[in-house]
Amino acid sequence: MSIYILGVESSCDDTSAAVLEGTTILSNVIASQKVHAEYGGVVPELASRAHQQNIIPVVDTALKRAKIHKNQISAIAYTNGPGLLGSLLVGSSFSKAMAFSLNVPLIEVDHLQAHVLANFLDKNGEKRDKPDFPFLCLTVSGGHTLLLRVHDHFDMEILGRTIDDAAGEAFDKGAKILGLPYPGGPVIDKLAHEGDPKRFPFAIAHLPGLDYSFSGLKTSFLYFVRDQLRLQPNFIEENLADLAASLQYAIIKSLTNKVERVLKTTRGEDLVISGGVSANSGLRAAMQQLADKYHRRLFVPTIDLTTDNAAMVAVCGYFKFLKNEFSTIQAAPYSAARTSL
Questions:
Q1: Considering only the top CATH level, what class is 4-123+304-322?
Q2: Each residue's pLDDT tens digit, 51-64
Q3: Distance CA 286, CA 236 (A)
């Protein structure tokens, strides 16, 4: 008998619903919110209002594309945190009400675990290779930067995390300094292909252990651009590609330095990337170089599964369903990342 999981994601500014049969994606619908672009970042109140408008049509579309009836759903999995509380409340309230009305199990999902488990999804009826446990995973997004050793689907040891800003935020803030549109990460990545990554050296934090820091890099980038503009008003326009490439190089170097430190002390573990920043071509290339150097397999989600989406929530729900790990309507959303996964 097939297991159909409906996944619901609303942690930030994307409203998404997906239907999985086991680990295979039958549908994955995402409604993005364009309204935030003019503000240069996500406005929480606007995000939650947009989720309220989008969630019913998005779920309806996901069921129709999957060609199943709502009564065939085995369970509903939803993002319970971390994220914007107003946004999370929309998705969690809808999921609880729908699960109650259909009398099916409810499964709460941690957003960061879901990003990692996106590497276990299958698409278009094709089974993909999966990483073997335990594996090393770099999870990088706009709000989070984590280095994990993943022992099992739900046993994830945090080796290091950012002590201030996330790598994705550094990309977006750097893009804003350069006058580029939001979200800035993809724009920086595209421009970096045309620039010299070593033209302008920017600060890379050298913290003891495996934790990350990107606030110093953001500050050095801001001050450098500000000082150069005083001397040369057209500095950004004349050096845009080199600035983008140099910023991207510094961020990626910060990330990969810690990964390599772990690879030097371990043997045979697969290497995995997850989160929105895993779509960055420079990061993918740098991680592939590390994988080749240390003779590891590298696993990266397809581009459409790197950013926030409900398919990753649903596959997390699927593995919890197999273990009968269900939640109740009393489960409260949480905004901050948990200290352990």
A1: alpha beta
A2: 899 999 999 999 99
A3: 26
